[in-house]
Every structure is written in structure tokens, then in C-alpha cells.
Write a structure and sequence with these properties.
By secondary structure, the protein is an alpha+beta fold. It is built from 4 helices and 4 strands, in the order ααααββββ. It has a 4-stranded antiparallel beta sheet with strand order 1-2-3-4. A hairpin with a 3-residue loop joins strand 1 (91-96) and strand 2.
């Protein structure tokens, strides 16, 4: 009995350690993509929020002036929108009204340059970076 006790008290076997490593790898393989999607969604939420404000401001602009604005600055000059400077440094907004508004990230955005979030005004859906529907 003493021999058996000595044998088991030496530590973990290589098989036990390998099983633990495989379990941790499987958990990481599942968790990392979910985490990356979550981070992208959080970064894109700022662009989505501003796109919503741009869309509302553009509708007010059209009601006031009878035509769609050409760019975000035009809506801001009319006093119907105010976009933070920090947001403008991270995203460039392109108006293709009345169909869509497109936001493209700049190098200032933590997620990197060239990420695109698109809002389709006809369907009310967002596509691209940080969304489930990616083009």
C-alpha cells in the first residue's frame, strides 16, 4: 500500500496534462471568435449611432430645404446635427441619400482603417463591420 501511495503522490502524468491542454484549447477556440465579434460590434456601435443621427438630421434638412444634403458638414451648418470631433477623426461618413449612409473607419480607429458600416435606409438594416451581415 505504501508503494502505491508514493507512486500517486509524485504529480500529474503527461496524459493528464495533455487532456487539460486540449480542453483549454477547445475553450479558447470557441471563446476567441465570440470575443472578437463582441469587440467589433462595440467599435461599430459608435458609427451606427452617428449614422442614425445623420439620417434624422438629413430628413429634417430635406423638410426644411426641399433637397437632400450633400455631406455631413452641410447638415451641421444647417444646425440639425452635431458630430463630435473624436468621432470625425475615427469615421468618415458618406451620404448617398435617400438610399444609404456609409461610414468608413480611419487610421485613428482602434479596429483599423478601412472598416465599413453601411446603413440601408430602405430596409433599415446595417451591414458590414461589427454586424452579423457582412458584405
Amino acid at each position: 500500500m505504501n508503494k502505491l501511495k508514493k507512486y500517486w503522490s509524485k504529480g500529474f502524468t503527461m496524459i493528464e496534462i495533455m487532456v487539460v491542454v486540449v480542453i483549454v484549447a477547445i475553450l479558447a477556440a470557441v471563446a476567441v471568435p465570440i470575443y472578437i465579434d463582441y469587440v467589433e460590434s462595440a467599435r461599430a456601435s459608435e458609427a451606427k449611432s452617428v449614422i442614425g443621427s445623420i439620417t434624422n438630421g438629413a430628413k429634417m434638412y430635406r423638410q426644411t430645404y426641399g433637397e437632400w444634403p450633400g455631406d455631413v458638414e452641410e447638415i451641421e451648418r444647417a444646425g440639425q446635427l452635431n458630430v463630435d470631433r473624436a468621432t470625425k477623426r475615427q469615421w468618415i461618413f458618406e451620404l448617398q441619400l435617400p438610399e444609404r449612409v456609409i461610414a468608413t473607419s480611419t487610421s485613428e480607429m482602434e479596429g483599423g482603417e478601412g472598416k465599413v458600416v453601411e446603413f440601408n435606409a430602405e430596409t433599415g438594416e446595417y451591414t458590414g463591420y461589427g454586424t452579423k451581415k457582412r458584405e
